[in-house]
Amino acid sequence: MKAPGASLRFIKNALDKAKRDLGNGPSSFDTIAVIMLAYRIVQELATRWSRIDLTVDEAIKELSTLCATEMKVKGKSLCNKIPEPRESISKLLKAANVKMLKALSCHGIKVATRKKLPERRKSH
After folding, report:
1. What is the DSSP string of 28-94?
2. 29: Cβ–Cβ under 8 A, 6 or more apart, which residues?
3. Among 39-43, 77-81, 104-108, whose mean pLDDT is lowest?
4. Terminal-residue alpha carbon distance, the chain
5. pLDDT at 37
6. What pLDDT, on a 0 to 100 scale, did the predictor assign at position 68?
7. Above pLDDT 90, what percent of the chain?
8. Alpha-carbon distance 93 to 38, whole Å?
9. What CA–CA distance (Å, rounded) separates 67 from 94?
10. Helices 56-63 and 28-48, interaxial angle, to 10°?
């Protein structure tokens, strides 16, 4: 992995965003705990991907290109099939010791929305 300071920038940016969005309210501690866990995950991935010439951010963006395909029979969702990953993604998964499933059960639930963000959450 390159740019060892990237994980420090990650935590600083996440803490700055949490402070800006939440101030010092009761959920601030929970948010900081999640950020610290995310920081620890970034550190672990950086260690596991140390022989790969990508930053953790670049590697995650690469992994995000692997998408599932919804399988339907007679209009009813059966499962989400995960395609065979290309070589670059396979290397990342192997280095992180992740074993991919061939398919995921599908309940027809939509997780992404096009709902507008509240004004306070929009970045300027």
Report:
1. HHHHHHHHHHHHHHHHHHHHHTTTSSS-HHHHHHHHTT---EEEEETTEEEEEEPPPPPHHHHHHHH
2. none
3. 104-108
4. 31
5. 85
6. 87
7. 31
8. 18
9. 18
10. 90
